[in-house]
Amino acid sequence: MRRWQRIVLFVLALPLVLALGVGVAWAVDERASDGKVARNTELAGIPVGGLTEAELGPIVAEVAGRFAEGVVRVDTPGGSFTLDGTEIDLRVDEAATIAAALEVGRRGAVTVRPLDWLASLTRPRTAPVRVTASYGAVHALVTERDPARTRVPREPSITGEGGEITVVDGRPGRGTDPAAVFDGIAEAARSGRLPVVVEVAAGSVPPRFTRLDAERLADRARALTFQPLEVVAGGVAASVPQETLRSWIRSEATRRGLELRIDAGAVQADMEELLPEAGTRPVDAGITLVNGRVSITPGRDGTACCDPAAARLVHDALLQGRAGPIELPLRTVPPRRSTEDARALGIREPVAEFTTSFAAGQSRVINIHRMADLVRGVIIEPGQTFSVNDHVGRRTRENGFAPGGAIEAGRFTEAIGGGVSQFATTLFNAAFFAGLDFAEYQAHTIYISRYPYGREATLSYPKPDLRITNNTPYGVLVWPTYTPSSITVTLWSTKHLEVEQSGQSRSSAGRCTRVTTERTTTVIATGERRVDRVHATYRPAEGVDC
């Protein structure tokens, strides 16, 4: 063989010899490192080549400790933000990381692995760090902190409005996709470097949940609300119908998933309406007279449906598929007027009193006395308006009233409750001389001589009414008393006004007479005076229109 031929043959055989040598050396090294991490391998910057699985464990545990307290930095076109490892439950999967380290250089085509081994003689190989995180936490925090966000995605939801469970479609948002961030964390963490840096672009952000997720939740809600729910509060039972149950249903996108919720406010409102008789009514602190002296009767708490905890009980019962009955706790209802409030009203002495007389033994006397009994003890607080009709109600036999004389459409007649206008006139005059205002009143259409001329009030139901406004800084106690032939109304408060009828005039109103009565009120402490007027229009005779 000639010399040049031998040279060519050598040149051609040299790569094969070198490749064979590398392959043999790689095979020898592989055999020597069997069950160990391949030579010149690093994990999170720590040399781990040649370590066994047992020796690798403490190092992986150390890396896991770093990541547990680490930070993820998310870089977006709109700026950067961070996620603490504790917020997103960032953890190193130690078993997977150890397995991945032991597989470095041992995966891929056999023809390529010797070359990878050869390269590792000059530069270290990197074992990937395998991490896990909470997708729900990442999704929630990225949505909350994303500086590139221009529109938040709307999750699909369910609603029970109108008593029917329906699905509301979601809508994509615009900004940083939480799913891309979640995937990027796992990829960026492979290097083992901290902080974990994830770069993402802005774009369309789909809702986390699908319509199918919402449909499944809707099916569950329909099944849970198929039967009425039996409830009991304060010994009063009721059945909540399907339509009402479904009107409470809502959904909420949480870190755990799309979940059913119950509208606590709707439960509270509907239970109050469904169980109005549950519990006991509170008793306002009152004021009475004992031996001519003011005495305060203490207020007392009541109970009613339902305590706010009832909504949670209903929520749990529905979602657990319980049929009931569900025992609902009552809430405490304080009196509108406490004992301290009653004392602060300043009711301590008579400030005005008026008496009218009537013939004893008539049926109308029953009505006058009944009105007095029903109104006795009424307290008109400062700024409050007292309506006789609202307080007493319709005059009926069942309410203790009897037939009596009355005036209707300008004619004398008889009606159940006839005669109550005498009580109204007596109260009107007491309020007149106490300096109180009249929000509503009407004089008789025919003058009756037992009443003060031009200064009186009639009463029927529902109109005309007698409504008195307390325009003073003190409370006013209404205290009627009676004899067989008279009715007296005494108003108790704090004496701070002097009141007098300062004038009266008459004018024609067609065939009727218009009477104007002037009242002058003087504040005792300052001398400030106020003049106002009340009016009456009288027909000249029964059946005569103006």
Write up what this structure looks like.
- The protein is an alpha+beta fold and 546 residues long.
- It folds into three domains: 33-149 and 175-205, no CATH class; 225-335, Roll (Ubiquitin-like (UB roll)); 345-538, no CATH class.
- Helices cover 30% and strands 30% of the residues.
- The strands form 13 sheets. A four-stranded antiparallel sheet has the order 22-30-29-23.
- Helix 1 (3-32) crosses helix 4 (113-119) and helix 2 packs across helix 3.
- It is elongated and about 160 Å long.
- It starts with a helix and ends in an 8-residue tail after the last strand.
- The relative contact order is 0.07.
- The model is unreliable at 21-28 (pLDDT under 50).
Mean pLDDT comes to: 87
Number of helix segments? 14
Structural class of the secondary elements? Answer: alpha+beta
How far apart lie the N and C ends? 153 Å
**What percentage of amino acids are in beta strands?**
25-35%
Spans of at least 5 consecutive residues whose pLDDT stays below 50 are 21-28
Major sheet: 4 strands, antiparallel
Tell me the strand order in the biggest sheet.
Answer: 22-30-29-23
Number of domains: 3
Helix fraction?
25-40%
- DSSP summary, beta strand count: 33
Mass-distribution shape: elongated
Radius of gyration: 45 Å
